[in-house]
Specification:
single chain; Arc Repressor Mutant, subunit A; three-stranded antiparallel sheet; 6 helices
Amino acid sequence: MNDLASRWLTYDDMAEALGITPDSARRLATRQKWARRPGNDGRALVAVPEERLERPHEPRADAAPDDAADDAPDVGRDARALIGYLERRVGELTDDLLESRRVAEDARTEAREARTAAEALRVQAGQVDVLTALVAAERAHLAEVRVDRDRIVAILAERPASFRDRVAGLLRKAG
C-alpha cells in the first residue's frame, strides 16, 4: 500500500473516523491487512486508505431508515459513543477482575506458606518439649548421682586411709 494514499491513525481515531468501535477497527485493519507501526506514545498506528476515510459510511443492515435518522441525527453517534464507553469499561473491569484474581491467588499462596511454617513450628515446639523433659530427667538423675557420690565420700571419710588408697587405686585402674 502507498503511504501517500493513507493516513496513520490510532485504533480509537480510526474507529471514530469510520463510525465503528475500536474493536471493530482492529478487526477491520487485520482483515484488510493494513500496515501497522508503533506510535511515539506506544499506541499502535494503522495506515488507513484515504478513500476509505472519504467514503461516506454505509448504513448497516440493522440501521434505522433515513427518515428516522433525520429525526434523531445524534442517536447513532450517541449509541456508538455509549458502546465505545461500555467496551472500555468492560475492558477496565476485566483487567480489575484479573488483578483481583492474581491478588487472591497470591493471598492463597501466602496462606499455604504460613500454614506450612506454622506446622514446622509446631513440630519444633514438640521437639523442644521432648528435649525439656529429657533435660529434666537428666537433672533428676544427676541429683541422684550426687547424692550417691556424697554418701560414698562420707563412707570413705570414715574408713582408714589405707582402705581409701586401695579404693582410689582400683578406681584409677578401672578408669
